[in-house]
Amino acid sequence: GCSTDEDAAGNESAGQENEAVEVVTITAQAPSPETTRVDNLVRAAEMLNEELEKEGQNIRIEVETQMFEGSWEDYYRQFMLAFQSGKEPDIYVASHANTGWLADGGYIQPLDELKESEAYADVYPVLWDAVTYKGHVWGAIQDTEARPVFYNKNILREMGWSEEEIESLPEKVKNGEFTLDDLLRVAEEAVSSGAAKYGILHRPVNGPDFQVMLYNFGGQLYDPEENKIVFDKEAVLKQLSFFHEIAQKNLIPEGLLSMEWSNIHSMVVNGEVLFYFGGIWNIYNWGQDDFHKELGKVDPEWVMENFGMMLYPAAEEGGQPITLSHPFAYFVSSNAEHKDLIIRLLEHVIHPDLQTIHNVETYHLPVTESAAEHPDYKANITLGDIAYMTEYTTFLPNHEGYEPYSNAVFKAIEAVQLGRQTPEEALEALEVQLKNDLRDQLTILE
Amino acid sequence: MEKTHRFSLYLRKWGLPAFMLSPFMILVTVFYFLPVILIVVLSFTSMGSAMRWDFVGFQNYRFLFEDPNLPTILTNTLIYVSFTLGINVLFGLTLALLTTYFIQKESIGLFFRTIWMLPRMSPPVVYVLLWLWFFDPSSYGVLNSIRELMGLPPTMWLVNQPMTAVILANGLIGASFGMIIFSAAIKSIPQDLFKAAKVDGAGHWSIIKDIILPALRWPIMFVTIWQLLSLLTSYEYILLLTNGGPGFDSTVLALYSYHKAFQFFEFGYGAAVSVVLVAVAIVLTVMLWKLFGMQKIERGARID
Amino acid sequence: MDISYRGEVRSQVSFPKALKWKKRMPYIVAYGVLFITTLPVILMYLWLLLNSFSSQMKYGFIPVNFTLDNWRFLWTNVEIAGSVYPSIWLATWNSLVFAGVLTILEVIIGVMAGFALSRLRFPGRHGLLKITLILHAFPSIALLIAVFYILNFLGLFDTLWGVVLVKTALQIPLTAWIIKGFFDDVPWDVEWAGLIDGCNRFKVWYSIILPLVKPGIAAVCIFSFLSGWSEFLLLYTFIISDSNITLATYLQKLLSDPNLVPYGLLTAVSVFYMLPVIVFFILTQKSLMHMHAGGGKGV
Amino acid sequence: MRIELRNVSKRFDKADVIENLNMVIEDGEFVALLGPSGCGKSTTLLMLAGIYKPTKGDILFDGQIVNEVEPKDRKIGMLFQSYALYPHMTVLENIMFPLKQMKVPKKERVERAKEAAALVKLDHLLDRLPSELSGGQQQRVALARAVVKEPKLLLLDEPLSNLDARLKIEMREEIKRIQQELGITTVMVTHDQEEALTMADRVAIMKDGELVQYSKPLDLYHHPKNYFVAHFIGSPPMNFLKGQLSVQNDQLQFAGEGTKINLGRCLKEFNVRDGQSVYLGVRPHDLKLGKKGQISLTGVVNLTEPLGHTTLVNVTVGNSLFRFFSDKKFVAGLRGEVEISFDRHALHLFDASSGESLSKRHLADEEAEEASENIIPM
Amino acid sequence: MRIELRNVSKRFDKADVIENLNMVIEDGEFVALLGPSGCGKSTTLLMLAGIYKPTKGDILFDGQIVNEVEPKDRKIGMLFQSYALYPHMTVLENIMFPLKQMKVPKKERVERAKEAAALVKLDHLLDRLPSELSGGQQQRVALARAVVKEPKLLLLDEPLSNLDARLKIEMREEIKRIQQELGITTVMVTHDQEEALTMADRVAIMKDGELVQYSKPLDLYHHPKNYFVAHFIGSPPMNFLKGQLSVQNDQLQFAGEGTKINLGRCLKEFNVRDGQSVYLGVRPHDLKLGKKGQISLTGVVNLTEPLGHTTLVNVTVGNSLFRFFSDKKFVAGLRGEVEISFDRHALHLFDASSGESLSKRHLADEEAEEASENIIPM
Ligand SMILES: Nc1ncnc2c1ncn2[C@@H]1O[C@H](COP(=O)(O)OP(=O)(O)OP(=O)(O)O)[C@@H](O)[C@H]1O
Ligand SMILES: Nc1ncnc2c1ncn2[C@@H]1O[C@H](COP(=O)(O)OP(=O)(O)OP(=O)(O)O)[C@@H](O)[C@H]1O
Ligand SMILES: [Mg+2]
Ligand SMILES: [Mg+2]
């Protein structure tokens, strides 16, 4: 019960003497390096405490934060073990892709309330999918990012593109006027004309980007009805063929899949590549080390002068361009008490101000429309113009079986790029592999 | 009286060994032996990310033996272990001989030994990064930069020879293990013996073969078996260097176990792979044991 | 030429002219082999070192733009992507403490066990030797899960002691085995003499035999220290609450987002990371290379 | 400390080394262990020290079985045949070590160790490591270490073998002096018979792990229990002839290969029977040129070695080589025949198959022996 | 092989061990190295073996400087004072090792090694490891290993110190036989003077790293170069008196502490001057009871030790102890005065400060010496 009288009388100290304030400690853990993910929880707690105070409740929240340094696997494993011994954090920050096993293992509790919550009302609808599993919402979406295609403006200029053509490329892509075939064609041209050393560059190690192409070719990865990973043979074949083709045409450097990240960055920054399937955070990367042969570290202004960012062009004329993101979410341990308080905390943490702090500092995209409109965000030279990408975004399945799936596909891509297998052969081998790895978690779509 | 006497005798016979061994035994039993038993039990469950002990009999083993990649992985394991072991032991021995026997000047020996310790001292990630940077197939790879300067085409060494790379990278690290132990053991040989051998007409080769190697029998056997087991169970550098690829070209059993257990969180399956690994290891160890005439090296205490 | 009673012709001893060369040949070859094989490693690490002091490598191997920027972690707390890294000195101190404690524990327990395995008489000695060796065949990663259950049962999960004990246990067979080999080589007569002079076997062990296996102890120290220094997996599997950052985790932090690796900093930190171990290694050398001088006839 | 060995046996993996050793060493006694190389002397010492446990039998110190007593509790000092110096300790530290174990205060410890070092003439090398010493110096360090703690039982395994003659004599005297001053029971293994016979109160002769004879030095010389001892002790060794005995009216006749000797009326003194196969033995020092002795024989001169004050003559008697000392002025043509003789008390007879002495003279009689016998000519 | 050491010096970190050693060992010669413990004998051997390099000076084999020649190319066999057996090889393998290095075919190797083992009476222990042998057995393995390759130069560092008297004599003979049959140049370190004097062609006496005298055994005995050698060689040692010389009408007078001796007309034989401080020396064996000798002196009897065939008499002459051998029948009351004498050729005079012998008799003369001197009474 709360006594407005007391509050009105401003007799705070007396009230506290009568009823000691109970402090609830909520623990939260996130992986390095983005501390803002948990720091925002602390800020949200302050907001909540104010609110509680106003409400006159004798309860306050304290958020204890903790960062984890290590690989993803280590992070997950630690959580599992911590949970077993009752030492897990109340709020566990992880990528949405973990929803499946966290839910299945009984590690987390559903947060369906959030969907009704006002604070979450303007979340981009598509993002809810990322944290929905078996019909429930399991996590509070925290951030998302953009994986754009970078294009080198200088190379296009050298190829005779006009300034206007160059600047309008993202728009054309967005409208489906510039397709994947166009991209291949331009890349080929760039290489043959000598304007670029390579037409295309993609990541050298396994990662979500490879599945963009699958979605782009209309493929499907997950069947929520049956809760199974889908092996969409037709789309996968197209996906493999695409990666086969760019290798065959020498659009990508030989041995790309065994290269080291820093060298990828060097190639991009030094203007050797026309199209780079990257991530928005790369801009930050390029300011960290002297990748550029003459300039050394390059700042975002320089990047924006020399590079443009666009969606992945649609596979067909008029089709929908695409991108993929890997949103993070706050998960709540199923052992956590004070769920109500936690929910209220999560409602505060999505506040546009807090989001913006995180987004600007760590190159992430907002998850709500209001945050996308935040002035600080809009003012950011790199982020301001790409918020739209969230609308075109897709996600990986949040099913546990995706990990082995993506591994197997990556190996298949490796095989076709190295010319060891044709896409068809690779597809066949992939099927065998997937059946072995996923067994009853797999449905095959002929 | 008689009883207390018996007791004190008993204490004397067992007291010291018990005292000297108990910390060791307790630690090993609790944190090594018991876990091993648990692992074996675990291999009969389908424990996954939910960490539930659901017993499934031999299912994991069945899956393992049905795995289409098993032959490749086993072959890889064999190649990886035998070649790396060869490098570890032989090269380690060579280094030890070179830096302690041939190079008598302490500071020079120390210099070279330190250099060879560097791979082991560097953080694995960084060590692997060095390899990746040097052998990167792009023109930014250090070797390729040099080749480019000399007008040579870039190499794709890591792609074409993933196993060689894995073996070499691991071999260099393992060699320092042998190097240190052998060096210390060589230095423990009484100087008198070298003198006597020289007088008896022994050249360098003979001193190495007849004096040093026999004296190193124990360390060599130990390093060989130990490294064999280490290699069988090692995956860290492979994981970082090639992650087993391309394809399964450089995947070994241990890495596979790691992938299963900690990437895909199939703990039960991973445990089963480990158990198979251990079975292989035991067979190989016993073979090596026989090969080295272990029983013969072992001699009893000379105090009654 | 004279004829020996065996009837074979004995030639006069003659000493080759190119004597010095012939004598030096093996050494020249030795130095040659060593230099050639070592060169790549030297270059690799030289490259790493130069890289840490320059912002770029021209042609991949010629350092340009000397900078101390990569080493800024020495005097400031580095900030990357909005997260401020803790002081490297704190991390170094923590690493030193962890590696130090581990080394001490391991050496003491291992040397005790090695002695028993080598020089004491008790049934089952041989079996024990074999079993401890075979245990090593279990991949420690596979053991993690099992060890977790044990630690959890003992209430040692999420404690530093738990990790130290586990780490020691995992390393101890190695230590015991290495050191056993060295104990085997100690002549028995010195131990006898010690007994006669009024020591019990325990005392003989530490006042007479231990000094004689210095090289072995040095070797063991190096390996324990190294493994403690680089320990990461156990610390981060079994300790949740503890935020004591070590150098290994500092490095891991730098690498935690594969997309956001500050390479220059990484090279500098890794050079820094290696320095204490190199120093430790060099310090142990005197013991490691301790010549067995002997005294008496040794049996 | 009184030491007793009762039926002590020791076997190693590959060999039985000591068999049924019975022996008593009285308190304060100085016993020398003599025997061929490899006969088990060092093993016996190591058992006394408690390093090896007897496989069978008991060892008693002052009447108490000490089989299970630790070496450290036995109050012994020992010099090992291999020295067994602590390689990592300096000379001083080596010598001080036993004192340290006795918790002697530091200052006294250093003092006593230095004293002991001075005793063995190593006071100038106190800071050296064993590896920087010569063999003899090492041996002396070992000696100093063994005596410094003034043990109740001192075990010395060839303590002086690597010392020069001068030093050896001095060290002998020092050992003897300390031993007597402190009444230390001492067992010393040595290969130097002179050392054994002059230093020891009793001498134990071992052979193949068995105690062959254990008696006072003079007895050993004059009353060897068997052929082995007779042969082993004395330099030059006793002269032997193999042959058959026959008894002819109270007179004992000896017929060897190519020679016949009338031994006279000595049946009372020997346990012999007619036709017995025996070794006849006479010490070179007991042989005299001419027929002055009670028993005489003839030999052919082989070689004369003038030794200044006397001449060693090698003659062939029957098929055997005999040596004796003659006057300095002795000159004989080579191959010339000479008559030599000896007194009956100098005659030794040993059974040819068992090697046992056939003499009836008992050890108990020794006190009664003439003074002239109380010397050992070396 | 002819060995020559030219100005050889050796210094270790802590000490100069050998100083300016000059020495020639003829081809096939057997040289014994004698000297007090720690004087540098082993170091010298190790330099000959090539294990240590001389700090200064050259070592020549057959006229060639071999300083830089590796031990393995020197064709040497060596027995180390510490044996240095290979602990992981059996007895047979140990002995075979040098042969293996010479690439002797396997079969012959085994044969020859077995022969050598038989020589040292170890043929029954071929499969043992060194740690399973007794000290003497180890030493014999080392001996077998040293001789088995029939080296050009055999270096023996106290090869027989741990063997019993019987075996020692046999081994001596074997070594000598092999050495002579094969004409092996041999250098042996020993502390047994008898061994040195009877086995060696020449004996080198070392002291504190310097060669003091290097001559035939007899010379050593009869013509010691200085006080040290005179004192060091011979058992019992030479008797000495310290005193002043004075020349009185061609006659040399000696005045020691509490005694005066007329040395007679021996000025020709000694390089002396009036008033010189000297040691006068006479060997016990040269002293005779009574006045029969050319020079006589008076002593007070201290002690008589009957030695069976002779009696050792200790008398005090002046302040010094004199020992001499008298007839077996000698009886003198203790404290009784006796007259003893010796011949002039038995007189030794040494300068008291330098210790040098003052005798004019040169080594070159030795051939001319009387036969009666050609013996060494031990
Ligand atoms: N490494 C060393 N450092 C310093 N001094 C040494 C070293 N080795 C030997 N010495 C000294 O050199 C001297 C000669 O030693 P060496 O072994 O040649 O004597 P040795 O004549 O053989 O004596 P012994 O008869 O006792 O064996 C000794 O005084 C010894 O202390
Ligand atoms: N560990 C062992 N295993 C087998 N036999 C051994 C072992 N140790 C010693 N022996 C044997 O025991 C016998 C006695 O050895 P011990 O050392 O007592 O001889 P010793 O009398 O001291 O001889 P030495 O005079 O040569 O030193 C020897 O024949 C030896 O070969
Ligand atoms: Mg012995
Ligand atoms: Mg010596």
UniProtKB/TrEMBL annotation, chain B:
Pfam families: BPD_transp_1. It is found in: Cell membrane. Keywords: Cell membrane, Membrane, Transmembrane, Transmembrane helix, Transport. It is a multi-pass membrane protein. Residues 74-288 form the ABC transmembrane type-1 domain. CDD domains: TM_PBP2. The chain crosses the membrane at residues 21-44, 78-103, 124-143, 163-186, 218-238, 267-289. GO terms for cellular component: plasma membrane. Gene3D superfamilies: MetI-like. The keyword GTP-binding does not apply. The keyword Membrane applies. GO terms for biological process: transmembrane transport. Belongs to the binding-protein-dependent transport system permease family. This is ABC-type transporter, integral membrane subunit.
Automatic annotation (TrEMBL), chain C:
It is a multi-pass membrane protein. Keywords: Cell membrane, Membrane, Sugar transport, Transmembrane, Transmembrane helix, Transport. It holds the Pfam family BPD_transp_1. It is found in: Cell membrane. Signal peptide: none annotated. Gene3D superfamilies: MetI-like. GO terms for biological process: maltodextrin transmembrane transport. The chain crosses the membrane at residues 27-50, 96-117, 129-151, 204-226, 263-283. One of its GO terms (molecular function) is ABC-type maltose transporter activity. Residues 92-284 form the ABC transmembrane type-1 domain. It comes from the Bacteria. One of its GO terms (cellular component) is plasma membrane. Belongs to the binding-protein-dependent transport system permease family. MalFG subfamily. This is ABC-type transporter, integral membrane subunit. It comes from Caldalkalibacillus thermarum (strain TA2.A1). The lineage of its organism: Bacteria, Bacillati, Bacillota, Bacilli, Bacillales.
TrEMBL record, chains D, E:
GO terms for cellular component: ATP-binding cassette (ABC) transporter complex, substrate-binding subunit-containing. Keywords: ATP-binding, Nucleotide-binding, Transport. GO terms for biological process: carbohydrate transport. Residues 3-233 form the ABC transporter domain. It holds the Pfam family ABC_tran. InterPro entries: AAA+_ATPase, ABC_transporter-like_ATP-bd, ABC_transporter-like_CS, ABC_transpr_MalK-like, ABC_transpr_MalK/UgpC-like, Mo/tungstate-bd_C_term_dom, NA-bd_OB-fold, OB_MalK-like. One of its GO terms (molecular function) is ABC-type transporter activity. PROSITE patterns: ABC_TRANSPORTER_1 (PS00211), ABC_TRANSPORTER_2 (PS50893). This is ABC transporter ATP-binding protein. It comes from Caldalkalibacillus thermarum (strain TA2.A1).
